[in-house]
Structure prediction request, 210 residues.
Amino acid sequence: MQIARILIVDDQQIIRAGVESILNGLPNAKVVGQAANRVQVFNFLKTNEVDLVFMDIHLGEESGIALTRELLFRYPEIKVVALTISESIALFNDMIAAGASGFLLKNIKEAELEGAINAVMEGDNYFSKEYLALVKPKQVAKSKSKIALSEREKEVLSLICEGNSNNEIAEELNISVYTADQHRRNILLKTDAKNTAQLVMIAFKEGLVN
Prediction:
């Protein structure tokens, strides 16, 4: 199991300390640093290796969205996950558009947090299940979508939107991981989504999930 080297970015020290305490209790995480703003982030990255950044969206007078965009431009190998109290759909869209691999609410439970880290480090996206539950009723379109998916693809898409990985989808539907991945790829192609994050937004907007 890969242990992710994590940098926590939040303008409140008490929040950073709390998140670090939780993350260091997980078997797949090791906090290697904290930062409160843009300058501290890039000073830290000059001399330290980081796999994953947990990014607050609001950093005092700075924007975590803008910082995410710049960070990923300069360090494209690093993964960024938003860790926030905000339930704003607009901020979710902006953060994903900036390149974030996940969006988590700060009240996320430890077990889900561990799974989120694994998913993101394996190249998947992950969205807090509590957040998705809030977004779904606001995002589902009333009009019938022009995107045609098979019943199996709809099942797979629904599980993707609930934050499940290919392994979890395969187990849930009693299919192989390879087949689950093929369904994911086919759905991405049919929806013209560039990645899983964009796929989730399209699914809600087009009313492709119940």
Observations:
- Residues 12 and 36 are 7 Å apart (CA to CA).
